[in-house]
Write a structure and sequence with these properties.
The protein is mainly alpha-helical and 197 residues long. It contains eight helices and four strands, in the order H-H-H-E-E-H-H-H-H-H-E-E.
Amino acid sequence: MTAWTVFSNFAFVIPAIRGFLLGEFSEGFILLTIFIISFLWHTCYESGDSVCHGQSFEFWKLLDDFAALYVFVVILVYLAALSKSRLKPAAYFVGGVVVYAGQLAGGDKTAIIWISIYAAIVIALRLMLDWKSYPYEDLDIIDLVAGGLFSIGGLLIYALHNTDTMHGWWHVLLSVGCYFALESLHHRYTLIFWRRK
């Protein structure tokens, strides 16, 4: 694993700050926590320590996997237009349970399948219960789509070509996906700089 893989984790700081600036404090806190966990794990991996920061190597590995997979729960909340819903905390909680249960059942690949099923169910329920307000008028659908596409790109890298160098791009693409999901709450611009009509 290279220094690039370690320091690419700093990409998560940008959407975390954006979350705090938009008043989305839960997302800001989640993304900042993910950055800290992932940075510590990759630092441990790079140093080759069997015990790092007082915890075992395996502990940090499991924690990092959980944090990385939980990013998809954050993005799901926005893709399902639950960012302004009272159901958002429940979606985050159940998503965490799904990620953890998937890891226990069969590891990362099983957890990804469970998250995909959870995403399909949440979006389907969201559309069935209140399809007329999807997405909310003041949410930017272009930013939402961009967030989804960057996240899928990161997932494809992780699943198909997860070499030491490419792993850093998984971090970057996921963080960009989170950024655009959060940016969908911004009312003036699409994709950061294109002024909305």
